[in-house]
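FAQ: What does a multi-protein file look like?

Like this. Sequence, then tokens, then the next protein.
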Amino acid sequence: KKEMERARRTRPSGPIRYRCSFRNTVYDVLRARNWKETDSETNWDIHWADRDWVYEVFDSMHLESWQRLNHYRNGRELCRKDLMIKNLKRKRRQLEKEGSFEEAQGYNFFPVSFVLPREYAMFVEEFKRQGGVWIMKPIGSAQGKGIFLFSRLSEISEWRTDFKSKLDGNSQGQDQPQVEAYIVQRYIMDPFLVGGKKFDLRLYAL
């Protein structure tokens, strides 16, 4: 009954109301459209929110049918590198378990991947089996920060030593910060290029 009542609601009359957590190009575009800016937590038509607001507020509120937000619930399950890999692998295993092997093959589009330090032993086993060039990426960084290539295990010895020292410190009850987690993937040696250069596409849909 409540869902039917919500479906019958219509947007209040008046100018489009927006809220923006940033002062950037998106904010400039919203202002240029002569829409009405608001700082209300709930009374808006469009909210360009930061991740903290989404994690702290979004999961506990209901959106009206006319409200639009630039994030979706549990978006970090796809946007954070380690969680995306986890979910892709999980879906592939599920399809294989159900006998849908052809559909499962569609989930082979991403390279061999491991989450470190949790899957370090499995990674080393795969590395010793095939070697090659690998790429390390911090799970929570962006804009290419902290990414590096390596082709020998000795090249990540500094990261491994740092992890082991912090692990030993924690086991002895010392207050040590957690070592930063990484995704390690087999490097794609022949990527699709545009004008001889690698590229990525980042699109906003509103």
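And here is the next protein:
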Amino acid sequence: MLFPAFSILLISFFSLLSVVTTKTQYWCHGDGVLNNQHTCRFFTIVIDAGSTGTRLHLYKFIHDPAIASHGMPFKVEKEIFQEVKPGLSSFAKSPSSAADSLEPLLQRARKEVPHFMWEKTPITLKATAGLRLLPGDMADDILESVEERIFNSGFFAAFPDAVNVMPGSDEGVYSWFTLNILLETLFTDEPTVGHKPAAHRSVAAFDLGGGSTQLTYWPNNEAVFSEHVGYERDIDFFGHHIRLFTHSFLGNGLIAARLNILQLETDNEIESTHQLITSCMPEGYQLTEWEYALKFWNINGSSSHSFESCYGTTKNFVESSEIMHLRELKGSPVYLFSYFFDRALNSGLVKGNEGGKIELRQFKEAAEIACRREKTEIDDGSHWMPWQCLDLTYIYSLLRDGYQFEDNQPLVLAKKIKGMEVSWGQGLAFATANEFQLTEGAIKTALSSEPNSTVVDQIFDLVYSGTNQVLSYFNIISV
């Protein structure tokens, strides 16, 4: 499975033990006693620090030894979701306020996880493109403040990377796992299908964030790796090798694309006054104090306002980016989520969180309608309405001119599947939970025969406290 570069503390400890367990062991939710004989429930906390908000994904997992051999050793039984706004990048001038913004999420997690399970519940916070785009040391200052809050949360913070900026390609990979886990395309309880993952059963995942966009899929034809060198990720997923095609395009997220497209239409002299002009908004309309990456802009509509003009500029931006043609996916349904889903929902292309199937041409048709609206029609108080013409036009151009899908390309838009969010959070939670539980099981197995129970307890206390004293401590008792 794809594991985070986990705690130096635990990895070193695990290496020193040199133990291979014959059975995976899990912390039981009922009494907190480690065993591998009974159905167990345990938790993992993932905090998604995105460009527009910070989201808690708290997962309650269940492990049933009776069915674990059929594929995945545990499954999500329940997801708790909560979001706070704005995103961490909005606190660039006050890092301590960024840490304070997490408190409602941490309080919710403390409420949901039994107290005796806190130290057995791993927590991780991953920031995405919003922080990547901050200048200078601003991102580091925010992360330092946030890290202190996470490490003092009462949960198990996996040193040293419990808090960091997630590489864009990891977003894509974890999102792909979440999607395919929820759709049961990798493992299924249906005996006629089999329990071994296969490329032809999996689906492609397209994620559109604020600062970047990601695509990930499992190619049937591995020639694509020769055409696009560097887009390959070899993954071990619960003992099965998977070779994924994945890439993240920084600057092609929806909010970042807005600024890039607006700048293409605006003369440098006008732009220097923090004024931007766009044919994607009607003449006479002005959007004041729009903020992105700590800069404020006034956006002005144009007399050339139309879908054709807006599309022309948008297409120029998309074609100048690194988005590539994906022949293998043509005609096959691909799954779109995040801002893809949100803008489709705003436009009435789908209804409700379950989403639905559409064709690419419907994004174009929705964009044409949005681009015909007059000044009074877009000034209705909705934060997305003034941008609807540009956003829908960009999404259409990204898929049509970037990935070069035809207008009849089938698209599946999803926000939730089986009542759970489609995001990279669940994929990361599986990786984090499995790494944590395997390490805990190995330590417990290795020390179960230790005659001095006080020594065993002290080692676990050191592990849970996150102190690097455990290394020197273990060297002492190894002599």
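Q: Is there any per-entry metadata?
A: Some entries carry free-text notes. For the entry above: The first helix runs from residue 8 to 17.
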